[in-house]
Amino acid sequence: MSDETPPTSSPTRWEGEGARPWPGASWPLPPVEEVEALGLSLPLYLHALLEERTDPDDPTGPPVLVAQLPAMDHLLDADGTISTGALVAAIDVVGGIGNGIGVVPDWVVTTNLTFRRVAPPTAPGADGALTLTSHLLRRGKTSAVGSTSVCAADGTLVATATVTSAVLTPEHGPPSLPRPFRPTPYPHPTLARYQAPLDAFVGLTAGPRHDEVRLQVLPHLRNPWNIVQGGVSAVLADAAARQTLAHPTGIDAELDELVVTDLVLHYLSPGRVGPLVARGEHLGSWGDDHVVRVVLRDQGAGDRTILLAIATVRRR
Amino acid sequence: MSELELADVTSAVPVQYELDGDLTFAEDGTTSGRLRPADVQRTPTGDVGMGMVANFADLLAGWASLRASVPDRVATADMTVCLLPTTHPRHLDGEVAVVRRGRRTLVSEVTIRDDRGLLAGIATLTFAVLPQPPGATPPSVMDTGRHHLTRGQSPPIVSFAASSGIVVDGPGSAHVPITPRVHNALSALNGGVTASLVDEAVAAAASDALGRPCVTTDLHIAYLSLGRVGPARARAHVLGGPLPHGTDRATVEVVVVDEGADDRLMTRATALAVPV
After folding, report:
1. SS3 of A231, please?
2. Which residues pair with B110 in a beta bridge?
């Protein structure tokens, strides 16, 4: 694994006709072959430490999966809280694995994810390390449903989520994971790329339209089945919802003044080719809560719709 | 409940027949419909509440999904409804787009507009496809054309929730007996009435937390198991409470259990509610 140094100049490389750099982006992704050589991974980037615990309410049932998510600077929003994109990406990983270990020897893919930040979005204690706890609520023949709570170190509830997964029987069995999960601290990768903001890590770029955000499907954004990870699509939806609402087409607010408080994701088909293009539409408002619908398409796969999202966005 | 006789809620006539309006199945396969709420089915401000809209969306998307799946059957697996502010709409129009058609699930999006054509809400529903057992009679499907919802029943005299038998017991708590009137095709509590039950519990919990009457604006329901015995009990609690003075919204988590089946978990829901 080679290392790299933070860029010292403005980004010059982004993808697609008419694409523009993402606001504030200062970490242009290297070419595909370099990304492969770097061995980047979203779960490693999030640095979540997983632990399986017995459910005290159901000692013979499936284990509860707990994850510690450190509040590293590059995961924080402008107001010092872990960004919605990072939280939902982490929930997709933890909730997905939580559902997955409840159905082994089968495995799962996320079909729906509903996320709600607890009001107000910058609740006291919302900064600092977070604990994600995932419970399996239902295991059916074809689907599994789990809930994930997100709590600050002082126990304050920061967010809640419901993750629904389709149960699959992978040809080569479930992914090889170190069961049971134990929170063995591992050294955070020294790769400079792992200190990049999340938007830059996944390689967001602004589209030619103001309400559009896109990314190239690079190797580090794929799961073991070679499809785009659900968390990456969530990051795109979060960005597109805020971008749609930001000045000059939405309300009089800059991008980093806005936060997605509620996000409902419906994964319709896998993203495989790219570029992925997310486009938002401001549907209406309840006072300070603005409702945005986001459609995410895989442009390289016949513009197929891969995700529908409804986001509630408000000023911080 | 006091306005109703017990016989009203134990009647075998489905409560959905009190939804006045129609469904239209076009030659091109699209499904649309109109809901004309009676005055007693509206909110105190004259609008159409989450429970009614959720039932309308479930009905529309359910029929569209069933027509797309015959001879198999479908069951609602989850439902998301997001409402937008309206001003006393005379009626609501809904149009369904089946956005994913897989072997095991269908996903439908319902766009809902008011009588002026303004967007009033959007709902997304996932249906599990239940394979038709060999030899079983396939589900009956309505023909192409326009069909009235009320099927000749008398107009409602109380709200849809009350007519379903839903009783709010206190802040964040509501229940409904599981009677034939609220059954689905599997003789269990139907998804629309479950949504109404959740809506009532959310509004009660949020109103208590914010100190003002509240309505549900955004709802996600995951249907986890069938409620066959009853009563079904919804318990809602406002997250992050106590809420600071001046808070303009409440995030609410709800569980629904089948009390007659050892409190079996039927549903988990989350919602947003705002003061009226």
Report:
1. helix
2. B96, B123
Cα A9 to its chain centre, rounded Å, is 27
pLDDT at A310: 97
Tell me the shortest Cα–Cα distance from A126 to chain B, in angstroms: 11
Measured CA to CA in angstroms, residue B79 lies from A46, B34, B55, B125, B268 at distances of 30, 19, 10, 4, 11
Q: Compute how many other C-beta atoms are within 10 angstroms of the C-beta atom of residue B68.
A: 18
Q: Is the pLDDT of residue A100 over 80?
A: yes
Calculate the alpha carbon distances from B274 to A119, B61, B75, B160 in Å: 12, 26, 30, 21
Write the burial class of residue A280 (CB in 10 Å: 0-12 exposed, 13-18 middle, 19+ buried): buried
Q: Which of B84, B109, B248 sits opposite A283 (nearest CB)?
A: B84
B251 touches A at CB < 8 Å: yes
Q: Which of A117, A147, A268 sits opposite B107 (nearest CB)?
A: A268
A88: DSSP letter? H
Whose structure tokens read 């509501």? Answer: B174
Q: How far apart are CA B77 and CA B60, in angstroms?
A: 15
Q: Long-range contacts: A247-252, Cβ < 8 Å, 24+?
A: A248/A210, A249/A210, A249/A211, A249/A282, A250/A282, A250/A290, A251/A290, A251/A315
d(CA B188, CA A172): 38
Tell me which DSSP letter residue A116 carries.
Answer: E
Instruction: Tell whether the model's pLDDT for residue B12 goes beyond 60.
Output: yes
State the best of A116, A147, A293, A296 to mutate against chain B, taking most chain B CBs within 10 Å. A116
Q: pLDDT band for position A20 (50/70/90)? A: low
Query: To the nearest whole angstrom, how far is the Cα of B7 from the nearest Cα of chain A?
Result: 35
Task: Return the closest-CA partner of residue A244 out of A197, A217, A210.
Answer: A210
Query: Which tokens belong to B23?
Result: 């469904």
Contact flag B126-A111 (C-beta cutoff 8 Å) = yes
Q: Residues 100..119 of A with a Cβ closer than 8 Å to B: which?
A: 111-112, 114, 116-119
Contact A164 B77 (CB under 8 A): yes
Instruction: Examine the pLDDT at A11 and tell me if it is beyond 50.
Output: no
The Cα–Cα gap between A145 and B223 comes to 9
Are A268 and B220 an interchain contact pair (Cβ–Cβ within 8 Å)? Answer: no
Q: If you search the block for the tokens 């809420």, which residue do you land on? A: B243
Whether ipTM tops 0.85, in short, is: yes
| Higher pLDDT pick, B97 / A209 | B97
